[in-house]
Amino acid sequence: MTNTKRVTALRRFIEEFLAERLETKLKALPIGDQKRQKLAEEYQRGNWLDSAAQRAGTLSVVTHTIKGVHPSAKGSSWNATMQTMPSRQEVGTHSLSRPDLDVTGPANAMDVNKFLALQLDGVSLLDLLIAGDSDMLAAMSDDHAVASQWRKGFCQIVEGPVKPSRGRLREGAESYAKALASDILR
Q1: How many structural domains comprise the chain?
Q2: Is 98 a member of any domain?
């Protein structure tokens, strides 16, 4: 059962986010530009959520990002869950109760991460979606089937493990060293 007041608040919250994003984009365009109408359509709640849910699958939530080290680094970013971490005496990721998360993926999908990271009453929209919160689904769409499909799309950001690239650690380290040396020598 949904809470009408909460659904309204969530819907308003989503629409305010979209209005701010649209306003920023419209400021960059002249008043008579034909792209303004197209942007206004793209930022309608249903249109934007549909597009964003599809783009969410290109993003991955990770604890260890490789490209943050060096843009030419070869290897895979990965998400270390506490269940998969061995217990050791040294200080490392395993020492943290909840490591900070980062997101990797194409730049044109990072607005999806920004949307999912929004918090209302101390809870992120992503957490509401993961929990299958009925008010969040109702706020996204009056059609439960559509909202459920969008939820599935958004949850892709955390559901699958990042597939590691092939190769041994040493090959990745050698690749990193070569890229770093190349940059230094330029």
Answers
A1: 1
A2: no
